[in-house]
Amino acid sequence: MVKVHFRLFEQAVKTVTIEVPSRNTTIGQIRANLGNRINTSPDRLRLLYGGKQLEDGPSLFQCDIKHGDIVLVQVRLELPSQEPLAALTPPDSATNSPPPPESEPPTSATAADVLEATANVPDDEGCPQMFCVKCKNVESKKCRECGCRICGGKEDEENTLACDDCQMYFHMKCLSPPMETVPDGDW
């Protein structure tokens, strides 16, 4: 079981901890589980991790969310439903006159317009990039936190394995004994 903490931002800030069966659980499944737990619609929840918004497709492993990490949850406001324009016009009016001018200038925006506009902005990726505090993601520096746990190197990514238990990276050539092929299943 993997425990992930979710910090909710509503009227008051509170933390909810959810036990996830594995790191292969998708963000969409977690969003639905969290929505059921706090009695709100899952599509009103915005999950943020590492400064990026999480999309429904990737898993915890793909987003590099580990045991004990904190995911920020922003609960979007529930806006009143708007009636369609056809329901607002009386059925007995047969004139095709233009609608009356609005009282607001066209440059002003309502909260619904802003929310709708920001909801459709695509993210660069579904998962945030990992940022190493120790080496500041400098490729030339050797780092045992974000590179190979044994040699610290970051090169040869196609021959680098990630341990399912400790979430550390290892070059296949650095293991004792060295591995020639990627193992099947968990290791």
Automatic annotation (TrEMBL):
Alphabetically ordered keywords of this record: Metal-binding, Zinc, Zinc-finger
Record region (Disordered): 84-108
A Pfam family annotated for this UniProt entry: PHD
InterPro entries: Ubiquitin-like_dom (IPR000626), Ubiquitin-like_domsf (IPR029071), Znf_FYVE_PHD (IPR011011), Znf_PHD (IPR001965), Znf_PHD-finger (IPR019787)
Claim: Metal-binding is one of the keywords in the record: yes
Highest taxon listed in the record's lineage: Eukaryota
Limits of the Ubiquitin-like domain: 26-76
Name of protein: Ubiquitin-like domain-containing protein
Organism whose genome encodes this protein: Podila minutissima
